[in-house]
């Protein structure tokens, strides 16, 4: 049975820009965009699986349709998911490119799904590998071990596995998905304490990220990537990203910089460092010169 809610915000909400971080590649089995621009997603709420469909019906209006045991719970959290309570009055862009993007895209919102483990697993899969490889691993594992999305979802759409299933996936299945031992062991450790991880969603973002980092295999980058999606943390800077510092440097300073210099450069916009990165990404001006061939994809499945 379908349940519907119309969300009317006090200001604009740009649906596509806001939801973009949730999609793990164009073939993500948990997140699809149909020909009408509607975003379909399969997720797991505490009450159970849910398929939801989000459409933009006006600059400040989002219509949500949901199916499955978790539908009512998802719709109740919709305001929180789109961070309608956030305050950007103290955000002062530090560069004309960011200022222009902030002016052109007032509908960019942070995301607060509250689904911590669901955001953590794909972040772990993305550790120290190419995005192509991590997205392929996510597709392979979700297709095999996830569940069909409830309701009239697009063909092939899935709900990601629950924590117990992630913990039971045999090592050879991770291996065939090209996931090395360090990453799959981190996923299994996280799955075994998934309930306590979910409770971090109720903490201040900085404290929640600190608790995530106490789990072996979860560092600053992985915690930030999770916080950006689950906690609505506008300051969660992905320090340690292979490309990010260079993109920030070349786009905003005209030269290459490292993580240390990026952190120093972005310090004046705290607590909006991640918001600054998202505005840079959607500005259409983000760039990084190529000085050599692309990094090779390490194939763990052949080892």
From TrEMBL:
Gene3D superfamilies: Hypothetical protein, domain 2. One of its GO terms (cellular component) is cytoplasm. It catalyses: Hydrolysis of alkylated DNA, releasing 3-methyladenine, 3-methylguanine, 7-methylguanine and 7-methyladenine. Keywords: DNA damage, DNA repair. It comes from the Bacteria. The keyword DNA repair applies. Its EC number is 3.2.2.21. PANTHER family: DNA GLYCOSYLASE, DNA-3-METHYLADENINE GLYCOSYLASE. This is DNA-3-methyladenine glycosylase II. GO terms for biological process: base-excision repair, AP site formation; DNA alkylation repair. It is an enzyme of class 3 (hydrolase). The keyword DNA repair applies. GO terms for molecular function: alkylated DNA binding; DNA-3-methyladenine glycosylase activity; DNA-7-methylguanine glycosylase activity.
